[in-house]
Amino acid sequence: MTPHNEASVGDYAETVLLPGDPERAEWIAENFLDNVRCVNRWRGEPGFTGAFRGMPVSVQSTGMGVPSLAIYMHELLDAHRAKTLIRVGTCGGLVEKVKIRSLVISQASSGDSAMNRQLFGAFDYAACADFGLLRIAAERAAALKLDHVVCRTASSDVFYHPEGLKRLARLQQHGVMAIDMETSALYTLAMRFSARALSVCTVVDNMITTEEIDPAERQEVFRPMTELALEVVIADAKASS
Q: What is the pTM of this model?
């Protein structure tokens, strides 16, 4: 048990999927895992543990933004000894080719969070995905013929910014193709704890074309992303055995 999680040591599998949305966490657990049990309900951020094709897998919602994700992830890594964390979240496209409903597999992510400044001072820091997980995700996405892009991303604490797209011009100029609110912290904390992490996100809006998904599409629009993440989990386990 931690200050933000009622689960006991051993309640989580070593591999954990991390959606931001608590409803998505429950949807993943109910639709993809066998023998599911709820291990956490505190603060409205549920956690579940079950099995996918016989392999233990957990799902824990993280809430929105770096501060929230950082708390849940720190406790999963430090208290519950998680080893592999895969974000299954949402992002926005920063270039026209990153279309809504497609998948973004993040190679590396920089961020504007105060957490970065506190950890690294004046240094810029763009943490990266675990290469083994990244490679498997790219290969499996291609094999499954999923509409996807493997690219650099960024994370921001501010969703409604007064400057809108203008503030992201430098990111676009340097090849950043998508933005979310959590991936930079996911990769940063994984590196600190010598854990493995990957971020796979569904594009729910594009800031260039202004297209966005219909809220009625949730949660089914996230099925390809979830299936890919679980395919990565299985392929990685086979590669490690």
A: 0.93
**Sequence letter at residue 116:** N
Instruction: Kindly report, residue by residue over 144-161, the tens digit of the pLDDT.
Output: 999 999 999 999 888 888
Q: pLDDT, tens digit, for every residue of 192-222?
A: 999 999 999 999 999 999 999 998 888 899 9
Whether 78 is catalytic: no
Q: What is the DSSP string of 86-138?
A: EEEEEEEESSTTS-TT-EEEEEEEEE--HHHHHHHTT----EE--HHHHHHHH
Pairing of strands 176-180, 148-155: parallel
211-227 burial string, b = 16+ CB within 10 Å, else e?
eebeeeebbebbebbbe
The catalytic position among 21, 124, 205, 214 is 205
Q: If we measure between CA atoms, which residue out of 116, 24, 19, 32 comes closest to residue 66?
A: 116
HSE on the CB side for 210, CA within 13 Å?
Answer: 1
> Mind listing the domains of the chain with CATH numbers?
15-240 (3.40.50.1580)
- Residues 154 and 116: beta-carbon distance below 8 Å: no
